[in-house]
Every structure is written in structure tokens, then in C-alpha cells.
Amino acid sequence: MNIIDSHFHIYKSEQAGLLAQGGGSFCGFKGTLEEAKTFLDRGHIKKLLALAVIPISPMREAAMKKRPEGLNAAKREEFALELESKLEKRLSDYNDYLCRSAREDGRLEPVIAADGSLKADFMIQEIMTKVESYGIKILKIHPAVNGITPDHKGYEPVFELAQDQGITVISHGGLSGEDPEGKYCAPENFENVLQRFPRVKLIVAHLAYPHTDGLLKLAGKFENLYTDISFVMRNSSLSDEALVEIISSFGKERVLFGSDFPWSNPEEDAERLLKFKLSENELDLLVHQNAIKIFNLGQ
What are the backbone dihedrals phi and psi of residue 276, each rounded to the nearest 5 degrees, phi first? Predict the structure, then answer.
């Protein structure tokens, strides 16, 4: 069976991948491109969506703490402007890295990072540059890493552009290391987005765990809402039977297989999924056909 991993993080270095996991390996991986290619070369995973996530707000806060004391107003403004320029470059360079990697290896589909705390004009230009240079059609947001919600005003121009350009948006959903209760990316915080941008295909990842019941209610109201089962396959208490029920309730045509590598092992997650009490056609939807259709990947 052709398996597409629709939620797979790749970092530019081992250090970056480990830092993203809190300083150490979550389940034995560092999150590198080399590890990704190892999975692809073994052939169990045929294609993966390489997602970019970069913690802009924490980086900004850390840099501001190091700002020299005693600066006058003009120097403080100069420091802030230089810092924003550096942060913009960090995000753009990371997006470029994933796009170039995908251009070199067609088994990767790049998913660039968009950030709600950076200036709107920069973010719009960044997205359009990647559309024009690499043909990107998917972007990733992670509101919780910045301590904001997906309906924050900083994301409005991103969603407007996504709707105008037909770009699919993947958002973190539910709990995260920065937000163990999952308050920022709880389902109710996506309702205004879904209402305002009805033509945007929005994937709220990880079943918004542990707020899955709320996500199911939202799915009943908005046909442009999708989800994936990344992270929860390894890192939740949900049983096989519970996951099958959730998938069926959400709609098998609107759920994607994903691992959330390096927080999970894609091969082990796929092996577990293929044992679910689902028909071969239903499994093919989850691991292959839904991704082809939702992300317009082609066969």
C-alpha cells in the first residue's frame, strides 16, 4: 500500500531537532533529513510532507533579554528592527531549506512555516516567493508555540492569502510542550477562522487531542475542516477501537495519516493503523488517497 506521511517534521540540524523536542530525543530520533530519507529508502513510507515549524516568539523573547542595558530610545528601536530582520531571515532560510530538499528529492512535499507574530507584508511576500519559486501549496502554522490562538489578527493576512491562492493550511491542534492543556489550539479557537475563510482547507492536526470531542463537533459544522492522527498514535491513551470510532465520526475522507516525526515513529504508526478494523479501501483513503486529494499532490 502506498503510504503518505502527512505530518513529518524535518530540521536543518541534529541540534535544532533535539531543541525542538525539549533538548533530547523524544523516541530515538533527531529529526534530520538523513533520517527521513532512511524511512523513504526502506519503502514503507512512499512520500512525506516535510513541515517547517520555527518558534519565532520564544526566539524574540530570548534575544530581547540579551539586549544591552542603557540604550536610548533610538538604539532600542534599532535593536528591535535588526532583531525582526534576523527572525524573518531565520524563517525564510528554513523554508528555503525544505523547499530545496524537496526539489532534490521528489518523495518530499515542502510545507512552509507561516508566523502570526511577524509583519504581515513580510509574511505575504515570503509565501508568494515560495509559491512562485517552488510551487508550494501547503503551509504550517503553530499558534501555541507563540502563545497565541489561530484566530489572532496576525494570522488574518495568511488565511486571506491562502484562500485567494488555494493554499492548504495545516495548524497544530491540541496540547503541546508549550501548552500542556492545549488552550491555544483548542477547537473553539478555530471556529471564527473556518467561518471567515470557508474556501480554505484547514487541517487541525493531532485530532486536537485531548479536545477531540470538541473537534468532532466542529467537523459537523464545517466541511472545510480536516484532521490527522499524528502524535496520538504513539503519545495518547486512545485505543485502536476509540481511534476507529473517531475516524468514522469525523469522516474517513477528511482524516489523514501522519506520524509527527520525530515525536513518533512513522513505520510503527503505519503498522498499527493497518491493523485497525477498517476495509482496505478505507485504509487506502487514510494513508494515501485523502492526501492526494486534499493537498493536490497528483498520483
Answer: -60, 155
